[in-house]
Amino acid sequence: MDEDLNPATTSKTAGIASFGNGESGHSTQRLFRVEPGHSAAFALEQSAVLMGCVHRLTLQAGIEHDAALVWASHYLSGMAKALVEDVAHGMGAEQ
Prior knowledge:
Layout: H1 7-10, E1 18-21, E2 30-33, H2 40-64, H3 67-94
Antiparallel strand pairs: 1-2
Helix pairs in contact: 2-3
Pfam families: DUF3077
Region (Disordered): 1-27
Protein name: DUF3077 domain-containing protein
């Protein structure tokens, strides 16, 4: 595919997706948000790195029965999910 036509190289993050429950504990009040303007390729790369960490942490958590590792995995997966969702919003906004 021609790199100029590849959505992952031309799209940007929209700054819409968020993660981490806020003080109220509700998902409507998020603590963190993806910043707009980052390339989709970079955001997806970072999401893959985060998911690699989640994969290793969940394996270790299962072996050690460690709740702290489970929670770390939960938060990292939320970050990765927000990045992917934000890229999807950015790609949808371009169409």
